[in-house]
Amino acid sequence: MPNFEEFVNEKTLFKNKDVLSPHFVPETLVHRDEELRAVMRCVAPVLKGEKAKNLFSYGKTGTGKTACIRNVLHKLDERGDAQVRSVYMNCRVYDSRYKIIQKCVADFKPGFARSGYSFAVLYEEFLDWVDGAGEEPPKRVIVALDELDGIKDLDSLVYTLTRANDDLKKGSVSMLGVSNKVDFKNRLDTRSRSSLCEEELVFASYNADQLRDILRQRIAEGFNAGAVEDGAVSLAAAVAASENGDARYALSLLLRAGELAQKRKQDKVTDKLVEEARKLADEDTAFGVISSLPQHQQLLLYAIS
User: Fold this and answer.
1) Are residues 145 and 250 located together in one domain of the fold?
2) How many Å apart are CA 28 and CA 168, to the nearest integer?
3) pLDDT exceeds cutoff 80 at 212
4) Total structural domains in the chain?
């Protein structure tokens, strides 16, 4: 009879699987020094008691936008300045002005109830906290909005966060917006666009050489020494480079190839396993597309096939 010890004690190719996750943010971001510098330049004024600049970053999936923003905010938080605070949120989850202000209040005032309040009450609570009500010092707040094209009432949110600076006496609120859609800003009204896009930053796609460097960095931290063949790295980088230079895709190919190798008790990740991982990823994508279709269209596709 099988038992958990069989899987707990099995030999593994991985040193730390989390390093290969798309949610992992490395301490050092390969080939993104200029972008990191640009984000830091916008954020740095808060360390001098000034308002940070609003920044809108865009580029295709897997180009390092989220990692750069989170890396900079982490470094900012590490400085331990009580008057500088940041909040990051994925706007596929926090997809309305209400949810975003509610998240800010919940993060910054943990004792405050999470539900049952009107937007006006939440907004006033947020302003009071930023301005330093009572004995609290005023704050310089940075709100990072990832995939902000998912916000249903974005124009209202941008207006609210911009207006907050007129309502505040001492503190300030700034926005860091991120989107995968290069033309997204054109859908904003003129006032929102000029407020949100005070500074803009475009993330170019990675090329195959850059992707190889990124993969090698993660392999050193995520796999045991010698577990991944050079051919596997080159193939994963080449395939991802042809898919809009998507580093997340390259990492997912290596992770899946590593899992296939471990499942089959192989001691190395090879280019053949990467190719197999690519085919499986393509099948998953196709299945996802078909599953999202209405039932009558799915039945038609099955009939044709």
Assistant:
1) no
2) 36
3) yes
4) 2
